[in-house]
Amino acid sequence: MPDTTTGPSTVPALPPLSAQAERLIELGVHEIAGLSADEIRTFAAETDGEGALLAVHPDRAPASVLAPLLRRDGKPGFVVVDMPDVDEFTPSAVDLPDAPLYVVTGVDRGDHMANWSPDEALPALTKEDRTPLLLTEGIHWVLQQPDALERNRCFMTIGSRLRKPDGSLDARTPAIWISNGTGRDGRERRNAPKVGWCWWNNRHTWLGFASTTGRRH
Q1: Contact yes or no for 11/145 (Cβ under 8 A)
Q2: Which of 106, 210, 96 is nearest to 149 (CA)?
Q3: 7 Cβ partners below 8 Å, 6+ apart?
Q4: Predicted pLDDT of residue 204
Q5: Which residue in 62, 70, 84, 210 has the most C-beta neighbors within 10 A?
Q6: C-alpha distances out from residue 177 to 70, 104, 197, 211, Å
Q7: Rounded to an integer, what distance in angstroms lies between the CA atom of residue 118 and that of residue 201?
Q8: Using a CB cutoff of 8 Å and minimum separation of 24, what contacts does 174-179 make?
Q9: How many whole angstroms separate alpha carbon 167 and alpha carbon 54?
Q10: Please, which residues have CB within 8 angstroms of residue 172's CB and are 6 or more apart in sequence?
């Protein structure tokens, strides 16, 4: 695996679950998920989740709908044009709670794995008793803590993979970073939050691997 001198992630702590609940309600995520505002508030109030991330199950709130809710420099997030199948990237080797709402604990951006490939990072995370974030969880994180996304310190979410009809995994792996406004992104999207993909065996100096210590309802 490549050497790296990048230190641990230094992302500010997440807000309390009650504040996260209000943020989701403000954005209308409860309506997307078919939940009432009171259901989200009650879950947050009754859940012991200090420092945890409040997430909506991807079956209730897919990435294609959540991504445009992201904001950076006043610009909305977007999914790259060559990822029209973004919602088909589903949990891979990740056990999700069977509930519309759950919490994700010990979230880390994985800066120390910058310039690793997904193929190198996944076994290392497993050895640390961590699992990679799903794409939707990564979006939830940036919705709640925009500072989780910084230039040259963005992250992959390799807990979401696309299973092809023959049973093999698509070589694309989802990531969240900041657009430079080049190519098909368009100049108007420069500095906007971007949901895209990278190849499974490729390395990128500006992408870590976001992960968690666990998920629970």
Answers
A1: yes
A2: 210
A3: 111, 112
A4: 96
A5: 210
A6: 11, 20, 10, 16
A7: 6
A8: 174/63, 174/83, 174/86, 174/89, 174/135, 174/138, 175/207, 176/135, 176/138, 176/139, 176/142, 176/149, 177/149, 177/206, 177/207, 178/72, 178/149, 178/150, 178/151, 178/154, 179/78
A9: 31
A10: 83, 162, 197, 198, 199, 200
* Three-state DSSP state, 113: helix
Q: How far apart are CA 181 and CA 95, in angstroms?
A: 36
Placement of tokens 């666990």 in the chain: 214
The pLDDT value given to residue 162: 97
Say if CB 132 and CB 213 are below 8 A apart: no
Model confidence band, residue 3 (pLDDT cutoffs 50, 70, 90): very low
Under the banding of pLDDT at 50, 70 and 90, the label for residue 134 is: very high
- For residue 188, give the 3-state DSSP assignment: helix
Q: State the Cα–Cα distance between residues 150 and 108, nearest whole angstrom.
A: 14
Write out the two tokens for 155. Answer: 């992250």
What does each C-alpha distance from 83 to 74, 173, 179 come to in angstroms? 23, 11, 15
